[in-house]
Amino acid sequence: MSALPVQVLKKLSATLQQANLISSALGSEINRLRLINDKNAKDYLHIDIKEFSKREAAVYRSSHKQNISIEMLQEGYHKSFSEIFNLIEKRKCLREAGGPGSDIWLETPLEEQHDKLDQLQYFLTRAEAAQRTGRYEEVYRNQLSLAQFFKNSGDGWLSDHFFECCFNSAKHIKLDGGKKEAESHANLGLVREKHGQLEKAAEHYETFHHLTVGRIWKDETGRTQHTVACENLWRIYTLLADKMLENKEHKQAIRSLIKAFEMAKEGGDNKIKGESAYRLGLAYLSTGNPQSAISGSRPLRRLIEQDQVVPKEEDGAQKCCLPPLRRRAREKREQQRNSNNMRRGGNHHDVTLSTTPDFKQLDAVQQQAISLGEEVVVPSEEELQLTAAEKTMMDINT
Questions:
Q1: Which domains does the chain have, with CATH numbers?
Q2: pLDDT band at 194, cuts 50/70/90?
Q3: CA terminus-to-terminus distance, the chain
Q4: Is 155 within 8 Å of 134 (Cβ atoms)?
Q5: Distance of CA 198 to the CA centre of its chain
Q6: In 3-state terms, what secondary structure has residue 351?
Q7: 37: phi then psi, degrees, rounded to nearest 5
Q8: What are residue 344's DSSP bridge partners?
Q9: What is the pTM (predicted TM-score) of this model?
Q10: Distances in whole angstroms, Cα of residue 98 to Cα of each of 10, 86, 194, 271
Q11: What is the mean pLDDT of residues 115-127?
Q12: What phi-psi label fits residue 283: left (phi over 0), alpha (psi between -120 and 50 degrees) or beta?
């Protein structure tokens, strides 16, 4: 290399220095780019982790009630949020009022039952959206879904609340002929009956019956709504009559039982017709008037004679048998005879024992007396003054 000219050596040395500078510059740039890329990657990773942590923190830090509340408010469902909040607070107040050891204290608070909160959010937000556009049938369906859900889950206080909401929404539905309104009256009648409010339940059932007359609407079991209305009224009138009999209000009880019998006939169920007729006969008997008791049992006797009602011991229908009623009526007549309320003679009588529904049920002495026209029952003043209920029963029998 020493043999090379000086000028060549200088040029070669300058070239090598330039190459080294270029190499070092390229290396620095590569290292700088690598650092930038590493920094960006770390920044991106830091950003992703930071955003993910924020979402997760919001979910896990807050309760389920708070999360669905925020979601409903963000989506604009303020009414749904208010209803859920009010339901939770109302139950919380009742729970605190009941105190430890009460039934309501032992139940799980609503805000801790996530599946029920989800159901509330789902159906309430849809009902609210439908209400904004005036689609009240959709509002009714969503509220009814909630009522049925909570009824099946055993949360009666929530099902009662949403049956009330259905009743209010049904008033705005005008294009279905009153079907939704009729259903809402029936459901609200069941709610009132469950809480022992029999008079209010009767009012709802009567409206339900009125709206279903002449309609062919059917429920989910295939029965007509009118038949269901008749059975509901028969049941509630019977319950009212039982309450009246406990209070010794015999005339009012008979009137209520006559209405129950009318509903049983209209509904067409022979079993409840037989039970209704039997109860009516017992109610007449409780007034101390055996003749009216036997007269009141005529509809039941006709059902038995036509084999439409067959008394069975296993289902309690043995109450429909007439002999116990006739036996008690005969005991009443014996008491009347002992009280000198009978006299003999065939020419001065108003009512005879021949009016007894079944002649064979009388004892031999009475049969012979009737055949000879010798034994006559003299009606008392109370028997001569038939009540309005008894006259109505006579019309039913004819």
A1: 68-97+107-194 (no CATH), 222-341 (1.25.40)
A2: very high
A3: 147
A4: no
A5: 15
A6: strand
A7: -60, -45
A8: 375
A9: 0.65
A10: 105, 18, 21, 43
A11: 96
A12: alpha
